[in-house]
Design a protein that fits this description.
Rossmann fold; 27 helices; 23% strand; 5 domains
């Protein structure tokens, strides 16, 4: 809402303060600045507030607002006086206001940095977290306007408001003065305030999803009179699943006395139902959706599943229709799945909801499935159904204009019915938030992701997301850092999901292989080696093996302390008449079930070839057994890519989440036992079984390491001049910085890096041979002569670099050869630099991606990183563990550690350099890119020979601001 011209003659209406938010109960509200046009809304709002709340606000009976009050509370300058309102359906439900004050508590103007703040929340909306959310937003506004502290006077009896301030996590002081509590809040964000904010975000977003998944009543809007059609199909599926709540059929074409459809009451609109409706499934043409949404919003519907197509997937006109749909639904406090969705399923026994187009949903199970594509959703449901897998919940979000995979990660994090989260994503609306949420969720249960549209170079139709410049390989590396199991296909996702849902996590990579086919055993052995596992030689039971032989062999393998997992291979066995028998799959399954249930909690997978009924029999849950599991310590031949200590990795399903106390704080684990569902996953190929097992091994190792997070060494603080760097950056950007930023000169880059303890070897310009000789005399021989022209930078293969020039004659000769070969000195921009000790050339980079945030990268200089893409990535800020893993996770890492008898280089110095670069980028968001190349790492120490930096006005950090829903 734009203000009248009289609103503020000096300050424009701050539309960037507008935000949609999710409240504690899962409903939404809109926060926006109060304008002069809000006088009637303010008066109406105040009339609905109880006398007690008014007394708490004004410390005296205050039955109505005077004209002067209304004018004062609706006229703001957006600097010294600011008012925000939370609205639902366009009407105020709460307000907050600050007035800048001086040290005597009197109205003040800039540069005073304190303001008095006051809230008023409509009684009907108290307890929804409105005041806490408004505090986050008004604090962000105040910081933007140079205010550093809030002061508030609260009556002692107003315990709710005192609690809002106390629980905010800001540094605060309290005193009792003249009958009221005086509170002072320091508005600088703290680790505690950020943790509080994110914990509230998790609870609110999880609740908003829970309201959709567990409705007490559902209305299907667009139900036809005759069988067939989308609406009628959804109603049939809803009733067929045994929905435990009330169902209604809605169609504006129904007669007033329509009666029932498929046995449920039929109405022309939601308003005629006469009872509360929690969820509405909208299956009408796009042009009729606004009418349906308004009908739902005006009658208290909590959420929508919009199956209708014709939105952003249809181009510019559809995108605008989609934005209007989201705005309209949120204005009523509703959240949306869709549009262009396939629906949602909740298999919980107390709900039994199938509000989707899926006629045969999988049975109840422990897997949560989210997909953005309806077609992929159909394929996944079909595949899971065929393999006997069970789902807890299923969501096909279509264009995911509102609710996204991030929201369902928030829900699954604490959902006791979900042990594994599977997500098919074609775009990441908020990659930075996704990585944070995925890391927290992965600490307690596996998260398996397939990322579609990886190489298309464009966003799928209908998905409005921030543009990311980082390549897919970097996205994959960052997901792995967050503990996400990223696979390439939906088949691999199902394969991994089945193993993780039904089997305990492996304690290490040691694999026993047994079966009745030597050839199939060898294929499994080779697959294990390919995936980095440590297989034992296969145990051949011969084709004469009986089910009892399999049971005995599996029992023995599980009892072996040198074994972390078992792969059973099976082919049809030969009967007495010499023909292959494949019909005894149930007998073999029974034997394997018995051995697995009685043995230690180690994962078991079966590879089978044409054994009738085996896969189906293995997929039957015989029982759920909790069995003690050994400590998940790395075995003697476990991978050692990370420094994490031995730690028990809890099995999926054995975690008891609690409210988060920090960004990555995992829920406490209640027990260290493994859970068997009784199901054993079966695979038609050895490679598929082994790949799923390898993902489980890598995930278990990540979880052990994540239990003891890395840290940034404290010694860096003594050698870092953060204030000096900040002052230098301000000076380099200037008072009116170019929004496109600017590249630093070599000397400017050296000075800024030097503030963070990074020394760049100096270079001296050599515009002619005499200058080159003078530079060499100053630096000392031997020297290097190289061009700095952009098209020749770091191109030794083109002759633009001459090394080990030991004296003046060698330097003059090299200078002449360089200019004869490549051109005039003015074009080449040659420089002279002292030679560095011999070592391995590496490259260290840091970039700011608008979607993913700051990324730290490492690789060997030249062909390994540029041609082969052998580069490792971690999100900033990096810890000591991240730095160690960066160095060790590239394929060419052996070169750094003494490959083929060479002396190992100083990796400790390299890790320190990575940490310093990470700190610089994290401390100063104006540093949008850094490239150190080459960094020559010797046996002792390292030398940075080249550095390029780029500064730009800092991008907005939405992940650090107040909670808000994305604007699509």
């Amino acid at each position: 809402m734009q203000p009248s011209p009289e609103q503020s003659p000096h300050h424009a209406y701050p539309d960037h303060w507008e935000a949609d938010v999710v409240l504690r109960d899962g409903g939404t509200a809109r926060i926006r600045p109060i304008t002069t046009d809000d006088a009637e809304r303010l008066v109406s709002f105040y009339e609905q507030v109880s006398d007690e709340s008014k007394y708490y606000r004004f410390f005296a009976p205050y039955p109505r607002l005077s004209d002067r009050d209304v004018h004062r509370f609706t006229h703001h300058d957006y600097v010294d006086r600011v008012g925000l309102a939370a609205t639902v359906g366009g009407e105020f439900i709460a307000t907050v206001r600050y007035d800048r004050i001086d040290d005597r508590g009197m109205p003040a103007s800039t540069p005073a940095d304190e303001a008095e703040v006051a809230f008023l929340v409509q009684d009907a909306h108290q307890g929804r977290g409105v005041a806490s959310t408004l505090l986050e937003h008004i604090a962000a506004v105040a910081r933007e306007r140079g205010i550093r502290r809030f002061a508030a006077e609260v009556l002692p009896a107003n315990t709710k408001m005192i609690k809002v301030f106390r629980d905010a996590g800001y540094t605060q002081q309290r005193s009792f003065e003249e009958g009221s509590v005086h509170l002072t809040l320091d508005l600088e964000p703290t680790a505690e305030s950020l943790a509080v904010q994110r914990a509230r975000e998790q609870r609110a977003e999880a609740r908003s999803v829970q309201r959709l998944l567990a409705p007490r009543s559902v209305a299907v809007i667009g139900t036809g009179r005759t069988p067939g059609g989308v609406g009628r199909t959804v109603l049939r599926n809803l009733l067929g699943a045994g929905f435990t709540g009330r169902a209604y059929a809605v169609n504006s074409a129904f007669a007033a006395d329509q009666g029932t459809i498929d046995g449920v009451p039929a109405h022309r609109c939601v308003g005629e139902i006469g009872e509360p409706v929690d969820l509405a499934v909208v299956a009408v043409p796009a042009e009729r959706v606004p009418e349906a949404v308004a009908d739902c919003g005006e009658h208290g519907v909590q959420g929508l599943v919009v199956l209708s197509a014709g939105y952003a997937e249809w181009g510019a006109e559809g995108r605008e229709r989609q934005r209007e749909l989201v705005r309209q639904a949120r204005s009523y406090g509703m959240r949306i799945i869709g549009p262009n969705a396939f629906g949602l399923i909740n298999n919980a026994e107390a709900v039994r909801l199938n509000a989707s187009l899926a006629p045969e949903p999988p049975a109840r199970g422990r897997i949560g499935l989210f997909t953005q594509s309806g077609a992929i959703g159909i394929a996944l449901l079909s595949g899971l159904y065929r393999r006997g897998a069970g789902l807890s919940t299923f969501i096909s979000a279509g264009n995911r204009a509102d609710i996204s995979g991030n929201d369902f990660l928030q829900y699954w994090y604490e959902d006791p019915d979900t042990d594994v989260a599977l997500l098919y994503l074609e775009s990441l609306g908020n990659p930075r938030k996704f990585t944070r949420l995925a890391r927290r969720t992965a600490a307690v249960k596996p998260v398996v992701v397939v990322k579609g549209a990886r190489h298309s170079g464009s966003t799928p139709p209908g998905h409005a997301v921030p543009v990311s410049r980082i390549p897919d390989a970097t996205v994959s590396a960052l997901m792995r850092q967050a503990g996400v199991i990223r696979v390439d296909t939906v088949t691999e996702m199902v394969d991994a999901g089945l193993l993780l849902a039904d089997q305990p996590l492996p304690a290490g990579p040691r694999v026993a292989i047994l079966g009745n086919s030597e050839s199939l055993g060898l294929l499994t052995y080779d697959a294990c080696l390919t995936e980095g596992l440590r297989p034992r030689p296969p145990r051949d039971l011969t084709t004469a093996a009986t089910p009892q032989d399999f049971r005995d062999a599996l029992t023995e393998a599980l009892a072996d302390e040198g074994c972390d997992a078992v792969v059973v291979t099976a082919i049809p066995w030969v009967g007495e008449n010499g023909e292959a028998e494949s019909g005894d799959g149930e007998v073999l399954a029974t034997a394997l079930h018995a051995a697995a249930a009685a043995g230690p909690a180690k994962p078991v997978a079966v590879v089978h070839v044409e054994i009738g009924g085996l896969a189906e029999a293995l997929a039957v849950a015989t029982s759920t057994v909790a069995v003690p599991r050994p400590p998940a310590r790395p075995s003697a031949d476990a991978p050692t890519t990370g420094p994490g200590p031995a730690h028990t990795a809890p099995t999926p399903g054995n975690s008891t989440p609690t409210a988060a106390t920090g960004d990555d704080a995992p829920p406490t684990t209640a027990t260290a036992t493994g859970t068997r569902s009784g199901r054993i996953p079966a695979y038609p190929a050895a490679e598929r079984a082994v790949r799923a097992l390898a993902e489980a091994v890598r995930y278990a190792q990540w979880r052990r390491q994540a239990a003891v997070p890395g840290k940034v060494p404290e010694f860096l603080d003594d050698t870092i001049d953060e204030p000096g760097a900040a002052g230098l950056i301000d000076a380099l950007l200037g008072p009116d910085p170019d929004p496109r930023g600017r590249a630093l000169t070599h000397d400017e880059a050296r000075e800024l890096l030097g503030r963070y303890g990074v020394t760049v070897r100096p270079t001296l310009p050599a515009p002619d041979p005499e200058a080159a000789v003078a530079a060499a005399a100053r630096l000392g021989y031997p020297v290097a002569l190289k061009t700095t022209a952009p098209h020749l930078r770091h191109r030794a293969d083109l002759g633009g670099v001459r090394l080990d020039l030991a004296n003046e004659s060698a330097l003059r000769r090299a200078y002449g050869e360089l200019t004869d070969l490549l051109g005039k000195p003015a074009e080449l921009q040659p420089v002279v630099q002292a030679m560095a000790p011999r070592g391995v050339d590496t490259v260290v980079r840091a970039t700011i991606d608008p979607a993913a945030g700051a990324v730290l990268s490492f690789g060997l200089a030249g062909a390994p990183s540029e041609l082969l893409g052998d580069t490792a990535h971690r999100l900033v800020p990096a810890t000591d563990r991240d730095a160690a893993e960066l160095i060790r996770s590239i394929r060419a890492a052996p070169v750094l550690f003494g490959w083929r008898g060479a002396a190992p280089v100083d990796t400790a110095a390299l890790e320190e350099l990575l940490l310093r670069v990470s700190r610089l980028v994290d401390d100063h968001p104006e540093v949008v890119s850094i490239a150190l190349e080459p960094v020559v790492v010797a046996t002792h120490g390292l030398t940075v020979l080249g550095a390029s930096l780029r500064l730009s006005p800092p991008p907005a950090r939405t992940d650090l601001g107040p909670r808000r829903l994305p604007n699509y």
